[in-house]
C-alpha cells in the first residue's frame, strides 16, 4: 500500500516544480457549481495530494505551503465547511516549522474566525506521522483519500 501511495504522490512532483517557479494554477481554489453536489472545488484533491507530497518529502518550500494553506482556507470559506480537514492539518504542521516568529498565526487565526465555522478539533500543534509510521489500516484510509 505504501508503494501505491508513493506512486500517487509522485504525480505531484511536476505540480510542486511549477509552484516553485511561481505557477500555482494546478492547485488554486476553483469553485464551480454542480447541480448534484452544489459548489465544489475542482482542485481540492490536488491540494490534498500536494500537501501529503510535501509532508513526506525531505524538504518543503515554505512559500508553497503558505500558498496552499491560503487556497484551502478560501475553499473552506467558499464551501461553508466547519470541520478540520486533512489538508489543513498537514499544512499547519509544515508551516509550524517556519512559525518561530509567529508570522503564520494570522493564517491560523483566519481559519478560526471570519465565519469559517468553529473548528473545535483544530490543533495547530498536532503532530503528523511520516509514511513509514502508518499502520496498514491508516495506509488504506490514506490511499482512499488520495486516489
Summarize the structure.
This protein is mainly alpha-helical. It has helices spanning 2-10, 13-20, 44-56, 62-78, 86-96, 105-112, 136-146, and strands at 31-34, 38-41.
Write structural notes for this entry.
This protein has 147 residues and is mainly alpha-helical. The protein is built from seven helices and two strands. The chain has a two-stranded antiparallel ribbon. Helix 3 (44-56) packs parallel to helix 5. The longest helix has 17 residues, at 62-78.
Q: Main attributes?
A:
5% strand; 147 residues; mainly alpha
Helix-strand pattern: HHEEHHHHH
Give the number of helices.
Answer: 7
Note the main sheet. Answer: 2 strands, antiparallel
Strand content: 5-15%
Shape: globular
Topology:
Layout: H1 2-10, H2 13-20, E1 31-34, E2 38-41, H3 44-56, H4 62-78, H5 86-96, H6 105-112, H7 136-146
Antiparallel strand pairs: 1-2
Amino acid at each position: 500500500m505504501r508503494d501505491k501511495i508513493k506512486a500517487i504522490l509522485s504525480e505531484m512532483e511536476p505540480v510542486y516544480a511549477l509552484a516553485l517557479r511561481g505557477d500555482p494554477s494546478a492547485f488554486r481554489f476553483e469553485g464551480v457549481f454542480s447541480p448534484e453536489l452544489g459548489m465544489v472545488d475542482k482542485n481540492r484533491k490536488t491540494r490534498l495530494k500536494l500537501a501529503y507530497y510535501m509532508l513526506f518529502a525531505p524538504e518543503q518550500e515554505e512559500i508553497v505551503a503558505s500558498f496552499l494553506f491560503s487556497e484551502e482556507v478560501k475553499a473552506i470559506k467558499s464551501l461553508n465547511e466547519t470541520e478540520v480537514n486533512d489538508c489543513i492539518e498537514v499544512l499547519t504542521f509544515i508551516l509550524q516549522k517556519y512559525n518561530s516568529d509567529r508570522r503564520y498565526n494570522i493564517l491560523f487565526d483566519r481559519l478560526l474566525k471570519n465565519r469559517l465555522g468553529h473548528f473545535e478539533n483544530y490543533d495547530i500543534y498536532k503532530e503528523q506521522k511520516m509514511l513509514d509510521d502508518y499502520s496498514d489500516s491508516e495506509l488504506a484510509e490514506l490511499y482512499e483519500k488520495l486516489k
